[in-house]
Amino acid sequence: RKNKNVTQTGLAEALSVSSQSVSKWENHLSAPDITVLPVIARYFGITMDELFGYRLDALNYKERFIRFMVNNGMLRFGEFTLKSGRLSPYLIHSGYNLTGSQMSKLGEFYAECIREHSIEANCLIGIDNREIPLVIATSMTLFNRYGIDSAHCVDYDIENTAFASHEITLITDAFTSGTSLCAALEQIKNKMNKYPSDVVVCVDRMERSDHSSLSAKHEIEKRYGVKIHPIVNADDIIKATQSGVITAGEYFEKLKDYMKRYKGE
Predict the structure, then answer these.
(1) pLDDT per position as a tens digit, 78-116
(2) Each residue of 15-35: b (16+ CB within 10 Å) or e?
(3) With the CA atoms of 67, 72, 75 and 80 taken in that order, what torsion angle do they form, in degrees rounded to the nearest 10?
(4) How far is CA 258 from CA 74, 128, 216, 263, in A?
């Protein structure tokens, strides 16, 4: 639609649907009815095979996730001062003010990451309040889609001895320096007498700390013996701006320059 300079309203009128329906399709919150697909193909002058090929092959789940973040305000471009004091051309703003459908979709991406990395997600855990609905959404997707029935616990429940024998997977959002992630790992260790085996995050910014050449991800993995699995990383976002997966090509050079300056090993 964007490549052909068609507005959501224009497409909605051509398909005799609401603009809200088109918005939900593009944000991957719902899918068009099968009877609408031939109309979409005719409207854009492509075959049904080409339409299905685009839906199934053109975007992998990392690209779909990046587009989802942009469309739902979780990934923003501009000038942002991070807690580290660095001036960044992009900001990850996940987990805040999401609707039920958005949180459900976010849980699907986390579950897909868990499946991709073959993580034994016996127990999913969240520390921060905004992680609680994300843990539940991920757990439900793992069961409904993959038949994996994971236990889950949150901050006030992590001293429960019922989880002592479980492999723990921490579900959290993006991290830059890793300070808050380290605090969460220590909190889990203090209350459960062990660190999680895995951590799933939405974005790894791949940045080094001020006192090390290592990226925060590699530094934390080395220090705590955990495996950190990002759904996407900064390189994936840069590629998406270059390839046109998202319409942010004007930030491509700024992103490259930023990573050249701050990327860790």
Answers:
(1) 999 988 889 999 999 876 678 888 999 999 999 999 988
(2) bebeeebbeebebbbeeeeee
(3) 150
(4) 20, 29, 16, 8
Q: What is the dihedral of CA 238, 240, 244, 247, to 10 degrees?
A: -80
- Coil, helix or strand for 43? helix
The values of phi and psi at residue 95, to 5°, are 85, 0
Distance from C-alpha of 238 to C-alpha of 252, rounded to nearest angstrom? 6
Q: How far apart are CA 27 and CA 37, in angstroms?
A: 17
| Half-sphere exposure (Cβ direction) of 218: Cα atoms closer than 13 Å | 11
Domains, the chain, ranges and CATH? 8-58 (1.10.260.40), 68-262 (3.40.50.2020)
Q: Cβ distance 249 to 211 under 8 Å? A: no
Amino acid at 217: K
* pTM (2 d.p.): 0.76
Specify whether the CB–CB gap between 154 and 135 falls below 8 A. Answer: yes
